[in-house]
Amino acid sequence: MAEMLKLGLILMLVALAAAVALGLVNSRTAPIIALQKEMEKQNAMREVAMSLSPGDSLAFDSISVEGLGNPFASVDNTLEIVRVSVPPDTSRIGYLFIAYGKGYSSTIQTMVAADLTGSVSSSAILYQQETPGLGANVAAPSKLIENYSGRSAEGILLSKDGGGIDAITGCTITSRAVTNSVREGLLAMGDAGLFRTAPVIAEEIPAHQDSCDSEEGAVVSVDGPAGEGGME
Amino acid sequence: MTVTLLLQTLLAAPGTGNSGFDVGRMMAIIIAAIFVNNFVLSRFLGICPFLGVSKQLDSAIGMGSAVIFVMTLATLGSWTVYNLLLVPMGLAYLRTIAFILIIASLVQLVEMILQKFSPTLYQALGIFLPLITTNCAILGVAVLNIDEKYNLGYSLVNAIAAGIGFTLALVLMAGLRQKLELADVPPALKGKPVAFLVAGVMSIAFLGFAGLGS
Amino acid sequence: MSLVKDLTNGIYRENPIFKLALGMCPFLAVTTSVENAIGMGAAATFVLICSNFLVSLLRNLIPSKVRIPCYIVIIATFVTLVDMIMNAYVPDLHRALGIFIPLIVVNCIILGRAEGFANRHPVLNSVADAVGMGIGFTLAMILLASFRELLGNGTWLNINVLGPGYRNQPLLIAILAPGAFILLGFILGFFNILEKRRGGGQR
Question: Taking burial as the number of CB atoms within 10 A of a residue's CB, which of A33, B169, B174, B212 is the most buried?
């Protein structure tokens, strides 16, 4: 019995020492990690948002759209959307969102900037862990991502699926994951009434200004200003 | 309290993403774990037992069942501890240490219980259990479930499917290696080298599953 | 003298990959590029050295009945340390190695050396053994990664070697999962021939 107690005590001691050591290091590294993640995100936001209004300094505030139809395009069915405006004017000039697409070996995150009519102005891959030399090529400046620009949800579909976007050779899965996640995100925003015209017909019919600028449809919650960063 | 939380996570609104349980998504997870991202042939988890225990068909099946069993229990334990204990207490960084301890003690516990209550099962699985602690597929599935932000339902499905995928690879390999005994292999490639070549060919075959279910 | 022997032991004579066949999972998984191989090798070597040092230091204090759980806790602690430090200072590499950083815990090389060497050798020898094993593991990974990156992507350590012509149509299979198995099979076969030539192939 005493032997058991002694063994247990030694194990406890070892585990305690380990926990204390890790706690100390964590308190040092956690802020650095958080800062780095935030910086990365902010930089990507600025870079992508630049296409909406080149040369202006931009302000961001975030909202989230819940209850997406496709669980694969988001985290917890919620799409985090950042509204972009040019201060001091508070009316927004476009939106940023991150699309989550389940690829071959990772969930690929794509940062997308869309203007008020729902057509993409720029996009960039934030995170991917696809096969090096194959799926990972989406992250290298690729035709795939560039091709989204100027298109609305309707047009963002692989040629193989009946759309006009060519997949990267040999990696249809990755290309489809990215493309569909961007498309789903745009569709969800359209459903939430964030675009001036329904994105489906955005290219055919001239935008009428009055239609659905209000936030109704899906549940839209406003979180208040998030990243208020000046650009340039 | 814990029970209601568990039930909530398991049974909340079906048809929605991570907070509920969707049969279509479940199927996608199963197919991905068994075929597309097979733990052994595509993710490279559990290679040691894959090579060590694949010489005989019987032992391959034994090892496979033991892995499925422990994987499911380990996922239950690790998911619960992580989401209901570590995260609320802000100790998420103790994940690795907590998981490996859960797995190690679980293996011990299962071994003791089997020995006492089911000697036949113990005879079948017993010798494989100590090997399982250092099987990275077990820790791998526990960590992957957290990284993928699966809820408990999906996590368990993923664990069972991953175990089945592991068993499938192991059993196929064992079958091939039994045939290989009779084949005329160049002397330099006898043993491990040819086993890796066979695994490579199997892995090519499994590449064909890419894109399935997504 | 024995220090030197302990050091070189892991590099060739008892190379963890080619001779002992330990630590295969990260070895096959992260060798898609030389950069990843070096990163993984460094992380594993660090954990190996620290755990061997501590296990050897405490070898007379830890009762043999609870030594395995103690070793596991020690190893897991160092792995978590590496995980945090890499996440903070080399986030790109941390991301590339992904799940295989926490999985260093179950890398059989580390527990194997703690149990098989460090718990009955003095501190200095244990550290020498860890350094040797770590270098052996890293070199083995660099070897396989060189083949895979060169054949599968036309580059070596991200330097373009085989030119754009090759890079447009590389031997992709080398960088995919099957390539790891097949190339390793051939490398092991090649080592077998070397052993035979030397007349020392008593395995």
Answer: B169
